[in-house]
Amino acid sequence: MNLDFKRKLLTPKEIKEMYPLREESVAAKARNDAEIKAIFTGESDKLLLVIGPCSADREDAVIEYITRLREVQEKVKDVIKIIPRVYTNKPRTTGDGYKGMLHQPDPTRETDMLKGLISIRKMHMKVVSNTGFTCADEMLYPENHRYLSDILSYVAVGARSVEDQTHRLVASGLNIPVGMKNPTSGDMSVMINSIHAANGCHTFIYRGWEVQSKGNPFAHAILRGSVNKLGNTIPNYHYEDITTLYEKYLAANLPNPAVIIDTNHANSGKKADEQIRISKEIINSIRLSGDIRKFVKGLMIESYLEDGNQKTDGCIYGKSITDPCIGWEKTERLIYDIAEMR
After folding, report:
1. Residue 92 pLDDT more than 80?
2. Quick one: which of 110, 185, 193, 320 could link to 309 by a disulfide (CB 3.0–4.6 Å)?
3. Are 52 and 134 in contact (CB under 8 A)?
């Protein structure tokens, strides 16, 4: 093999023992998990907002952002449940660029994955201890999920990972909601198959063990738009797209029919400000149809302290170093608008 084995990393068990959750944090996760699952089963009519930076690039800015979210959550808690995005590993289309805090706890320095594993755990721990939120992260590497398995309340599987067998099987063994994005091709059947696999029970190899999963009834769809053969983006957040997916869900007889709609990526053409208009169009679709209201469980929005984005070595505090985000003032106004429309 053309590999250099640099060092053996600490196991998830070892890092969890070094940085254990406080009892209050364990209780906060249990409360959040129960409230979020109730939305997916239909027991609660609240709307989920999975919202936050494209990538969690520095702890201080992320904590400040989520502390502000906490204040907003209290004002909209009767109609909205917020799940902060704390995405610590980022897929790169070509393999180049910043791969997230897991790889580079300091974006301006070389990769240090041991330091990264510790940094992302400490950041998630600080979020829950400071704000009571337990967060969403992307399952880019299925074998790494165990490092944060006791602290996350939501996991997303990306458009480039959703066809991967390991992602599907690991998702079937999680006890929190897992969102399966449609692939970049936009093929809804791929996403439906992925959800079906995650709903089922499987025996497979995971971290050197033969394991048996129990199936995840909270696996669900995320619509994020697609790209055609010419590289043009094609949105799939419109009323007709949601209705089409709902019909496919019913035909597949999947448990807890649910979709989260990603308002950025190919749905917005990565034009962050479009998320505001897109969010409001989706809320209007929800108001037009009882079926859609039951089916659309929430929105995914990329937002940070400052508008737009900057290069990795940029010095503007709270500004994305990956995809553009809407800034705080727009974010706060949008959340209140959604709550009022809801």
Report:
1. no
2. 320
3. no
The gap from C-alpha 194 to its chain's centroid, in whole angstroms, comes to 16
User: Which of 248-269 are b and which e, b meaning 16 or more Cβ less than 10 Å from the residue's Cβ?
Assistant: bbeeeebbbbbbbbbbbbbbbe
- SS3 sequence, 84-144? EECCCCCCCCCCCCCCCCCCCCCCCCCCCHHHHHHHHHHHHHHHHHHHCCCCEEECCCHHH
Distance, CA of 240 to CA of 304 (rounded, Å): 30
Q: Which pTM value belongs to this model?
A: 0.96
How far is Cα 40 from Cα 266, in angstroms, rounded to an integer?
25
pLDDT at 158 over 90: yes
CA atoms within 13 A on the CB side of 53: 30
CB atoms within 10 A of CB 201: 11
Superfamily of domain 14-341, CATH level 4: Aldolase class I (3.20.20.70)
* Tokens 């702890």 belong to residue: 59
Mean pLDDT of the chain: 95
Q: How many CB atoms lie within 10 A of CB 3?
A: 5
Cα separation of 261 and 91, whole Å? 19
Give, in degrees to the nearest 5, the angle at Cα 135 between 324 and 276: 35
What is the C-alpha to C-alpha distance for residues 300 and 78, in angstroms, rounded to an integer?
19
Helix locations, the chain, DSSP H: 12-18, 23-41, 59-76, 113-131, 165-171, 188-199, 239-252, 274-288, 290-295, 328-341
Domain segments of the chain: what residues? 14-341
